[in-house]
């Protein structure tokens, strides 16, 4: 149901509009990756851009992640604003050397001389029965690395708006697009544009418990909040948005309001994003807590193919709601 | 087909001859001083000296312009010096001082100097090669007639990044020159024990990249081969590959007990010392007399003495600056 001020769209289209906007506004920007051109993008995000902007600016690459990600880093050093697409986060491991040893470290190793204004987009997450080599959520691995900015759009506004802000950033920025969100539909303002990438956002205010999520986990947390509302529990949903650097003030502020937190993370539980958020709450808001922080994470297995197993491996709204009920039930 | 140009010293002008010899002497004496300073614990960390390979850096860089880019590896003191990075700032860097070219954050393996367009200093074997490809891509996209030159050892030829980079550079006809310094040992692994195809030019040729080979102990041969390769690339022929057949007289690093090669082999190569043989050839041709040679040595010694004094009196980067240069944009 579109109102005059909004248009119904999908994440896929929102990401594409962001790319089109960037290519129109910035003559130094170009898109590079496997099948971004003639094929139209392996997930259809770049469809039509080749026809509009030509093969110099929508550049198909060979299957060589270390080569084209490294070339993107070099092009950024040479004054361009490359937007590099990696098909999935699993494949990004082939370019991990370039991302970590060059993009993230050159500024520091050069004593502040060489910065790398590159944007690297990639798909992350499970839910499409693609099995263990196309389904992982490794954004936490990248969030471990100082020198990178790690963005995880979980709303249409962020899908549309984070890219331009990332392109203005002098540092390397990684944008993790959850694959299950691409076809998700919703209303987006006609005049939607760039958004900030520094702050987390409260997507739904609440009083009894905070559901802290990001990316593909955000819609699930919102669904869980609706389930909880039916039980008379008021849940605040906090969208982390940026995993590095984390918005401590928003996390601690939310705990100060609700005194309980469930962290939702499709990544693995051990040594992951949720573990980091929990620790920061313990360090910074321990005396605000009325219950231990709970985590709802991906099962600690390589993601399986079969639909029922895959769904069992992922955080689900009812799991999130159940964790929240336990916390609220422990009220003294 | 590989081109191997020969070079006749009898056609040299006196001034030109002296400049080439002085260039090699600067590197040789600088490295000898580094070894002394390392033994005296003024320099720490991993340190790899370039003694024996001076003809390559000096010869190869004759045809580069100041606006060209140079990408190097961890054995880069000589490259940096020849490229015009001040000896004092290189040495201060190895001392870990704030006056170092990387403010003490890089050390021996990570020399950077944006003013000299010297892009490291990459300690991941082959890690710099895609960067050079990207710098060349930026030049091509912005219509500049610059060349990017990338130095790496023959050990890098076994890495995937080398192959991905040559493929990309040839596919996109990028202005990048690959300077392979074949000193026969990747740390302690001999070429014949690490490569199924020991003719490295054949590998480059398989990507349709034109190739040159040069006697890496002969500065004029190095200059001639690199000169042809750089000229072809600058004229728009796309990438070029030059193999310099050379030898390092010292161990891989200061930690290397050098158990992997016979002393007689090292002695044999030392008969072809690029500095001494060139000086002797110039004397035979009447292009260099004893007094001139002594004057060159005195100039070089004075430069290095000054550099040592500069490094010694340098200041330590304040610990408050520890977290500088992780992000260019200040984050909370």
Largest sheet data of chain A? 7 strands, mixed
Indicate the mean pLDDT of chain B: 96
**Which stretches of chain B are poorly predicted, pLDDT < 50 over at least 5 residues?**
none
In terms of structural class, how would the helical and strand content of chain A be classed? alpha/beta
**Poorly predicted residue ranges of chain A:** none
Number of H- or I-type helical stretches of chain B: 12
Record field, number of beta strands of chain B: 9
Which range does the strand content of chain B fall in? 5-15%
What is the end-to-end distance of chain B?
A: 57 Å
What is the residue-averaged pLDDT of chain A? 96
Distance between the termini of chain A: 44 Å
- Helix amount of chain B: 40-55%
- The helix tally of chain A amounts to 13
The amount of beta strand of chain A, in percent, is 15-25%
**Share of helix among residues of chain A?**
25-40%
**Strand order within the widest sheet of chain A?**
3-2-4-5-7-6-12
Shape of chain A: globular
Q: What is the N-to-C order of secondary-structure elements of chain B (H for helix, E for strand)?
A: EHHEHHEHEHEEEHHEHEHHH
Keywords:
heterodimer, A: 332 residues, alpha/beta, seven-stranded mixed β-sheet, five-stranded mixed β-sheet, 14 strands, B: 332 residues, seven-stranded parallel β-sheet, two-stranded antiparallel ribbon, 12 helices, 43% helix, 12% strand
Helices and strands in order:
The complex is a heterodimer of chains A (332) and B (332).
Chain A (H helix, E strand, L loop, with lengths): L5 E5 H15 L3 E5 L15 H5 L4 E3 L4 H13 L3 E8 H4 L3 H8 L2 H4 L9 E6 L14 H5 L5 E3 L4 H13 L4 E6 L6 E5 L11 E4 L4 E5 L3 H14 L4 E5 L2 E3 L3 H11 L2 E8 L4 H13 L8 E5 L8 H7 L3 H13 L3
Parallel strand pairs in A: 2-3, 2-4, 4-5, 5-7, 6-7, 10-11, 10-13, 13-14
Antiparallel strand pairs in A: 1-8, 6-12, 9-11
Helix pairs in contact in A: 1-8, 3-5, 9-13, 10-11
Chain B lengths: L1 E2 L10 H26 L14 H7 L8 E5 L3 H7 L3 H8 L23 E5 L6 H13 L6 E6 L6 H12 L4 E7 L2 E2 L2 E2 H4 L5 H6 L5 E5 L3 H19 L2 E6 L17 H8 L3 H11 L5 H23 L20
Parallel strand pairs in B: 1-8, 2-3, 2-4, 4-5, 5-9, 8-9
Antiparallel strand pairs in B: 6-7
């Amino acid at each position: 149901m579109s109102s005059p001020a909004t248009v119904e769209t999908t994440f896929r289209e929102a990401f594409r509009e962001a790319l089109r906007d960037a290519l129109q506004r910035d003559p130094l920007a170009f898109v590079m990756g496997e099948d971004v051109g003639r094929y139209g993008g392996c997930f259809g995000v770049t469809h039509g851009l080749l026809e509009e902007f030509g093969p110099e600016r929508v550049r198909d690459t060979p299957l060589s992640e270390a080569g084209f990600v490294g070339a993107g880093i070099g092009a950024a050093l040479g004054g361009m604003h490359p937007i590099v697409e990696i098909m999935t986060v699993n494949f990004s491991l082939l370019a991990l050397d370039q991302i970590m040893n060059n993009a993230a470290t050159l500024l520091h190793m050069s004593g502040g001389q060489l910065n790398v204004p590159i944007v690297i987009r990639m798909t992350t997450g499970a839910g499409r029965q693609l099995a263990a080599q196309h389904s992982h959520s490794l954004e936490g691995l990248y969030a471990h690395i100082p020198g990178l900015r790690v963005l995880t759009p979980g709303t249409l506004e962020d899908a549309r708006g984070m890219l331009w802000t990332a392109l203005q950033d002098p540092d390397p920025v990684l944008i993790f697009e959850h694959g299950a969100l691409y076809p998700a539909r919703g209303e987006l303002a006609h005049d939607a544009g760039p958004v900030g990438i520094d702050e987390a956002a409260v997507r739904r205010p609440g009083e009894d418990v905070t559901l802290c999520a990001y990316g593909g986990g955000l819609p699930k947390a919102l669904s869980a909040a609706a389930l909880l509302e039916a039980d008379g529990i008021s849940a605040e949903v906090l969208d982390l948005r940026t995993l590095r650097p984390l918005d401590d003030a928003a996390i601690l502020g939310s705990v100060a309001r609700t005194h309980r937190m469930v962290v939702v993370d499709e990544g693995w539980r051990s040594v992951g994003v949720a573990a980091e958020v929990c620790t920061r709450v313990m360090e910074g808001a321990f005396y605000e807590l009325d219950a231990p922080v709970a985590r709802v994470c991906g099962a600690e297995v390589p993601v399986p193919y079969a639909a029922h197993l895959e769904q069992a491996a992922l955080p689900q709204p009812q799991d999130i709601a159940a964790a929240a009920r336990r916390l609220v039930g422990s009220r003294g | 087909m590989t081109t191997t140009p020969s070079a006749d010293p009898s056609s040299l002008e006196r001034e030109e001859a002296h400049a080439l010899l002085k260039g090699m002497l600067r590197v040789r004496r600088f490295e000898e001083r580094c070894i002394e300073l390392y033994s005296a614990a003024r320099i720490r960390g991993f340190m790899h000296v370039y003694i024996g390979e001076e003809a390559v850096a000096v010869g190869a860089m004759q045809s580069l312009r100041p606006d060209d880019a140079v990408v190097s590896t961890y054995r880069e003191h000589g490259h940096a010096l020849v490229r015009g990075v001040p000896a004092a700032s290189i040495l201060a860097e190895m001392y870990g001082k704030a006056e170092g070219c990387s403010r003490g954050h890089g050390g021996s393996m990570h020399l950077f100097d944006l003013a000299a367009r010297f892009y490291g200093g990459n300690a991941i074997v082959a890690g710099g090669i895609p960067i050079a490809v990207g710098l060349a891509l930026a030049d091509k996209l912005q219509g500049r007639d610059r060349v990017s030159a990338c130095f790496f050892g023959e050990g890098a030829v076994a890495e995937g990044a080398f192959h991905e980079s040559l493929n990309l550079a040839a596919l996109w006809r990028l202005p990048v020159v690959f300077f392979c310094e074949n000193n026969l040992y990747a740390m302690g692994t001999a070429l014949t024990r690490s490569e199924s195809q020991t003719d490295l030019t054949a590998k480059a040729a398989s990507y349709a990249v034109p190739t040159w080979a040069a006697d890496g102990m002969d500065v004029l041969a190095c200059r001639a081969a690199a000169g042809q390769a750089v000229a072809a690339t600058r004229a728009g022929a796309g990438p070029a590959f030059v193999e310099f057949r050379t030898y390092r007289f010292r161990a891989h690093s200061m930690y290397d007990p050098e158990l992997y090669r016979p002393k007689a082999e090292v002695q044999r190569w030392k008969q072809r010392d690029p500095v001494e043989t060139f000086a002797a050839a110039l004397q035979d041709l009447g292009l260099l007399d004893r007094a001139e040679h002594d004057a060159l040595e005195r100039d070089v010694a004075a430069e290095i003495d000054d550099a040592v004094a500069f490094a010694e009196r340098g200041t330590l980067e304040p610990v408050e600056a520890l977290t500088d240069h992780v992000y260019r944009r200040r984050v909370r």
